[in-house]
Amino acid sequence: MITGHSASIAAVNAKRLRTALVTAAAGLAAVTVAPPAAQAQQNCVVSGSLVVPVPWSQQLLAPDRVWPLSTGAGQRVAVVSTGAADNPQLTGRLAERATFAPPDTGQSSGSPDCLGTGTGVSGIIAALPTTVVGFHGMAPGAQILSAKVVGDQYPSGREPRESVAPQTLANGINWAVDRNATIITVPTVTYEDSPALRGAVQRALSRNIVVVAAVGERAPNEPGGLVPYPAAYDGVIGVGSLAENGLVADDSRAQAVDLVAPGANVVTTYPNSGLGAVAGTEYAAAYVAGTVALVRSYRPQLSNQDIAKRLYATAAPAPEGTGSASYGYGVVNPYQAVSDDVVAGNPVALPPLTPVTVDPEVAARQAAENRSDEWALGLAAGGFALVVLVTAIVVFGPLGRRRGWRNGLAPVPQDRFEDERPEPPVELFSDRPKRS
Which residue positions does the secretion signal occupy (predicted)? Predict the structure, then answer.
């Protein structure tokens, strides 16, 4: 559950973006802007701050390595969440907005995104790079379609908190399908299966749309057996949250997880302006949706199923191995997902093994022939050995008799004793006559 970092947003419900504080580790600076009167009354999230360092999540995933190949251009990514507010880094990225949220109780703030979640998810997907801050989106060439399904606050009386009615989610998904979305991100979770939501998801999948959904967070003392939807539906990529230490976040739910991505203390866009730190599986889902935009832009011929399999096949290994409840296939890997050569389609099953029936008479005749072949081979080997023996006797026998059956090597020379004492000196030319 996310809490605010300043007095002005202390009462914001969980899942609202937090204003960043100065921390020595991250070097984040907080600048809180006083909200307008209407927003102050509703405790809406206000502008963020100037956060210069490159966030750890970007250092891990390095989406800019993919940009020479793909920036997500041509992709329309729907975000079914709390709306989307303007931010300088989202200039030109927010293509369309629609509201499906139930009416707020009391006075409405009128904010396009009071809670800020949708703005943050949109920033992780498509925020433009700047020379001032290190943060940018995964696919800055993509466009955002914002379907607002939560107003100033999450519906009261629903358990767990911060879940919405499945019909509301279905309305947002159906709108995204009608607006030609290529990717639909559902950061908002419901824990109720319903024909309306299931039908909306199936409609999106049948249109070759990739659907990415957060799995949500565990709440203290929540009832057991909760299943997050739409992440649990077949064909939907369910996403869990990864912490900076490389382990799954403590509160990330371990149901319906296909992939994990950074989702704890990540930086993203705030409503109106600035950046700030946020946490939750909804932001992890944004990193996966941004990766899908990169892949789909570079490989437009792939189906939504092929893209999902590509993400699973190229995911970085997780501590618990492939297929664990908490990590799924592993950590999303944007560069490998775009660049690797992965064979599309389903594996082809081998043809069934048909046992061969052999006629008994044929088997007996084959066995007799095998025995005959073995006898013939044995006789041939024996005959060859006999020829070699006879040849050796004929050729080497006379030579051995001449040598007395001695080998042809020269005898080893014997050592002879030599006197090591020096001999008397010899006068040279002593045999010549002397001159008188």
Answer: 1-40
The Cα–Cα gap between 72 and 95 comes to 14
d(CA 385, CA 390): 9
Better pLDDT: 399 or 86: 86
Beta-sheet pairing, 266-269 with 275-278? antiparallel
Asked if residue 95 and residue 133 are part of one domain, the reply reads: yes
Q: Average model confidence (pLDDT) for the chain?
A: 84
The total of structural domains in the chain comes to 2
Q: How many CB atoms lie within 10 A of CB 11?
A: 11
Q: Are residues 380 and 316 in the same domain?
A: no
Task: Quote the CA–CA distance of 310 and 60 in Å, as a whole number.
Answer: 19
Q: What does the pLDDT average to over 184-189?
A: 98
Same domain, 285 and 368: no
Q: For the chain, state the CA radius of gyration.
A: 40
Distance in angstroms (rounded) separating the CA atoms of residues 436 and 156 = 150
Domain that holds residue 397: 359-402
Q: In degrees, to the nearest 5, what angle opens at C-alpha 124 toward C-alphas 311 and 243? A: 70
Cα–Cα distance for residue pair 426/436, rounded to 1 Å: 23
How does pLDDT run across 291-321, given as a tens digit for each residue?
999 999 999 999 999 999 999 999 999 888 7
* Assigned token pair, 40: 């102050």
Q: How far is CA 388 from CA 208, 299, 335, 396, in A?
A: 78, 71, 69, 12
- The pTM score is 0.72
* Residue 190 three-state SS: strand
What is the CATH number for 213? 3.40.50.200
- What angle in degrees, to the nearest 10, is found between the helix axes of 281-298 and 117-126? 30
Measured CA to CA, the distance from residue 273 to residue 269 in angstroms comes to 7
